[in-house]
UniProtKB/TrEMBL annotation:
One term of GO molecular function: DNA replication origin binding
InterPro entries assigned to the protein according to its UniProt record, in alphabetical order: CDC45 (IPR003874)
UniProt similarity note: Belongs to the CDC45 family.
Lineage: Eukaryota, Fungi, Fungi incertae sedis, Mucoromycota, Mucoromycotina
Source organism: Rhizopus microsporus ATCC 52813
Biased composition (Acidic residues): 153-167
Stated name of the protein: CDC45-like protein
Length: 574
């Protein structure tokens, strides 16, 4: 148990299955696309094995505290706690103070892992992981256990002495001190090296391992329970990590190779078959452009609001607009055609798009406009890419009622659905709980949209995301042009505290996307890359929210972030 790698996935799942036969199971799920995909897959596995469970969304440590007080501490029959993209960075056994018969199963891509969760003596916590860091972690764990548990053993020995043997105890302590002083030079060097190894492990910076959805898909593969729906969810989860720059291109391509094999196995393989059989639900291997929603937007807008195209063509200034027009002209595409919705463009232009882009775009520095991806048919008439789903689900998660009103889409966010069971203990006048109300609703909207074969809610998310992307572009263009991104010794700081689009930036996910957009430009305009802190005023609650990220030299590369503590949060505005 403890750290569970691929060869132990099936055995660990058997523990969940066996324990849940005589107890309850709770699943705590973080509010991001990768987590939702992993939760849906795991929920499908549990349902197939008739394992009753309760799903609880969490957005941070405050929600974990709430789940502990309202659910975990009150459930005497709780035997399994499953944590998805949460829990890996804290000592979960100490945090929940669980009974000896309760086990915690952690699926978390955040790194570095808390070593208390994965040391060999911790039989109550199982952390699912891949094999790629095994060698390094074994050395770190050896140092951790040597320094931590040897020290605890000495402390316990001292505490066990009785008061009647005080004199002997004092002499014993002196002997121990003498022994410590007499440690051989090699032992002291080893101890110092172990301390340095632990310090380096925890100070290396925050980063992400393989997608959690990818880990759950590997589990389903071990159990021989994969299907097209699970494959699609795994693809979406990994794509989310890639688009949000949490994994690099090498890691992404490694997963794509696996997905390509499974796509060929689970889907129709020949063009002739695809031509005569309804493609609803079919997954196809298809390269994706680095401009978003081109199937649903106009080609011009799709390129204009893509951070990659923006950064290469300089679209934040008037000269950049001319560059985009020249690019399209050299491709032989009339501007009026490019400004039509893509589905209304001339068929011959759509057929020539890939060839012309590959021929012309390198002249403008656009050398990496495509990456390998997948599409799936919905509703017999709609084709959505994995990137489309990622952006749409992110929009459903992050759009507050205020933002929905700003975009004229409030109807979907104020529909009459009963959330009283989830929110029964929240105080109506508490600003934090007010925010919790809408993000919990958003969580389930996004969860439902992912789990359905209907494209209706996903397309709604796409429309909202288009509006959000335009607001992000406007804000970043203004900040770059007016030099509002302030350069400090060790970082850049971008503050959003006014303007008509201010209500849009009330969620960390939106701020993070805006930060990535700005970093794409800063990569091309700045000689030295620095971390970026993005903060926005929440006028409703009179606080500033913020997030931070580290700039990698190029898209598809990653750098470890500053400490996870302080990476995002809220600051009171006084």
């Amino acid at each position: 148990m403890v750290r569970i790698t691929a060869n132990l996935y099936e055995e660990a799942y058997d523990y969940i299955r066996q324990d849940s036969a005589h107890g309850n199971c709770v699943m705590l799920v973080a509010a991001d696309v990768d987590s939702l995909c992993a939760a849906l897959m795991l929920q499908n596995l549990l349902k197939k094995d008739m394992i009753a469970h309760k799903l609880v969304p969490v957005s941070g440590y405050r929600d974990l505290e709430r789940a502990k007080e309202q659910i975990i501490e009150k459930d005497e029959d709780l035997v399994s706690i499953i944590m998805i993209n949460c829990g890996g960075l804290i000592d979960v056994k100490e945090f929940f103070d669980i009974e000896s018969y309760t086990k915690i199963y952690v699926f978390d891509s955040h790194r570095p892992l808390k070593l208390e969760n994965i040391h060999h003596n911790n039989i109550n916590v199982c952390v699912f992981d891949d094999d790629r860091e095994t060698e390094k972690l074994e050395k770190v764990l050896e140092a951790f256990e040597s320094l931590t548990y040897n020290s605890e053993d000495n402390s316990e020995n001292m505490d066990s002495d009785s008061s009647d043997e005080l004199l002997e105890n004092t002499r014993s302590k002196r002997r121990r001190l003498d022994e410590d002083q007499d440690l051989s030079r090699s032992a002291r060097i080893k101890k110092r090296a172990q301390s340095n190894l632990l310090m380096n492990y925890y100070t290396q910076g925050a980063y992400h391992a393989n997608s959690t959805a990818g880990i759950v898909y590997d589990l389903a593969t071990k159990l021989s329970k994969t299907d097209n729906d699970m494959l699609w969810l795994a693809i979406i989860g990994v794509t989310s990590q890639y688009l949000h720059e949490k994994i690099d291109t090498t890691e992404y391509i490694r997963s794509v190779r696996v997905f390509r094999d499974d796509t060929a196995r689970l889907n129709l393989s020949t063009d002739e078959e695809m031509a005569v059989i309804n493609n609803e639900g079919e997954i196809r291997i298809e390269d994706e452009y680095r401009f978003m929603f081109f199937r649903h937007w106009s080609l011009y807008e799709s390129m204009y609001y893509s951070s990659y195209v923006v950064s290469k063509l300089g679209l934040w200034n008037p000269e950049g607009d001319k560059n985009l027009n020249r690019l399209l002209a050299q491709m032989g595409f009339r501007l009026e055609q490019c400004k039509q919705i893509y589905t209304h463009m001339d068929v011959d232009l759509k057929d020539r798009l890939r060839t012309k882009i590959e021929e012309i775009s390198p002249r403008f520095g656009l050398t990496e406009l495509c990456y390998p991806s997948f599409t799936r048919g919905y509703d017999r008439k709609c084709v959505l890419s994995a990137a489309d789903i990622v952006y749409a689900i992110s929009a459903l998660l992050e759009t507050s009622p205020t933002t929905a009103v700003h975009f004229g889409a409030e109807g979907t966010w104020t529909e009459n659905r009963d959330w009283r069971d989830m929110l029964a203990n929240d105080a109506a006048d508490d600003a934090t709980n007010e925010k919790r109300r809408w993000w919990v609703k958003n969580f389930y909207k996004a969860y439902d949209a992912l789990g359905k074969q209907s494209s209706e809610m996903v397309l709604h998310g796409i429309r909202i995301c288009m509006e959000t992307q335009q607001a992000i572009a406007r804000q970043v263009f203004a900040a770059i042009s007016k030099r509002l991104i302030k350069k400090h010794n060790n970082c850049w700081i971008m503050v959003v505290d006014g303007g008509p689009d201010l209500p849009v930036f009330g969620h960390q996910l939106t701020l993070f996307r805006m930060g990535l957009f700005a970093l794409d430009i800063l990569r091309t305009t700045s000689a030295r890359l620095k971390p970026l802190i993005v903060t926005s005023l929440d006028e409703v609650h009179n606080v500033y929210i913020f997030t931070s990220m580290v700039a990698a030299p190029a898209f598809g590369e990653t750098r470890r972030n500053i400490s996870e503590i302080g990476r995002e949060g809220t600051i009171c505005n006084r």
